[in-house]
Amino acid sequence: MNYRFMLFFSFLLSLRVMVIAQEGQNEPEFKHYRCPGYITGCYKGFSDFKAGNPAIKSNFHMVRNKPKEVRDSKAGGYTLQFDKGFKTGIISVKKIWGAYYEDTLYINREFFIGKKGFDKVYCLGSYGYFHSINPEVAANTNEVVLAGMLFGAIGGAAVGAGQPEGNSKSMKFPYVMIYILDMETGMVSPLTSFKLEKILEDDQQLLELYDKEQHKSSMWIMHAYIDTFAERFRNK
To answer: Are 140 and 167 in contact (CB under 8 A)?
Structure first.
């Protein structure tokens, strides 16, 4: 995939990203977010999630934060809220590893970067991945680009549209980081070129394109490829 082509493709999709930002809470439904087969609830750990043993079974919902709120508070894309008057007992939100709500998994940022808020997981079989705002550069994040990266299905394209090729500082410190969730062990780790290649083994066409990239470890390049993989995975 040619970097200039990616930027051109990003430009064509930029209006869609702007719509996502303008609409605020009106989030499009993408099937590749779905993790069907688990039990609704709030979980204290990954093993509890896999075993279907929630600490809280009901009286909660997930609320998507507005891009400006995410940027200014350096929080995650989503907030876990409990119904009015509902008591969680001794369990605080900080101790909840994740929440499974409406066939979708949300992971607590406290468990992997020590920051508040939840991020939505894209499920890709034995792996899941999610976008999480980089608190180191949160104050400089463009709201429109942030909305596309966190809430759209075109995260990599949004990055390309918002980032000039020559901006080396932003290449080193991207607005949004990508993390991989191992759906077998629960381990969370930053996306690397090696891990991306392992995931792309299920799509030889994308893998061949990725192997030709000159900047394979660039977060922007990896972002584009894993989002493209997710979209193709969804359409299988």
So the answer is: no
Question: How far apart are the two ends of the chain, measured CA to CA in Å?
Answer: 21
- φ, ψ for residue 166 (rounded to 5)? -90, 5
- Using a cut of 0.70, tell me whether the model's pTM lies above it: yes
For the chain, the 3-state helix, strand and coil shares in percent, each to the nearest 5, are 40, 20, 40
Give alpha helix (H) positions in the chain. Answer: 3-23, 46-51, 67-73, 143-151, 155-162, 168-172, 193-200, 204-211, 219-234
DSSP conformation class of 171: H
Separation between Cα atoms, residue 155 and residue 224, nearest integer Å: 7
What residue spans define the domains of the chain? 3-234
Which residues sit opposite 147 in a β-bridge?
none
Residue 165 near residue 221 (C-beta atoms within 8 A): no
* Tokens matching residue 224: 């584009």
Edge-to-edge strand list for the sheet holding 122-124: 122-124, 127-133, 176-182, 188-190
Tokens of 3: 């970097």
According to the model, what pLDDT value does residue 85 have?
A: 78
E-state strands within 83-164: 98-101, 104-108, 118-120, 122-124, 127-133
The segments of the chain whose pLDDT lies below 50 read: 1-3, 5-31, 153-173
Locate tokens 């430009």: which residue? Answer: 11
Q: How far apart are alpha carbons 191 and 133 in whole angstroms?
A: 14
- Taking every pair of Cα atoms in the chain, the longest distance, rounded to a whole number of angstroms, is 56
- Which neighbouring-strand residues pair with 204? none
Model confidence pLDDT, tens digit, residues 85-117: 787 776 788 899 999 999 999 999 988 888 889
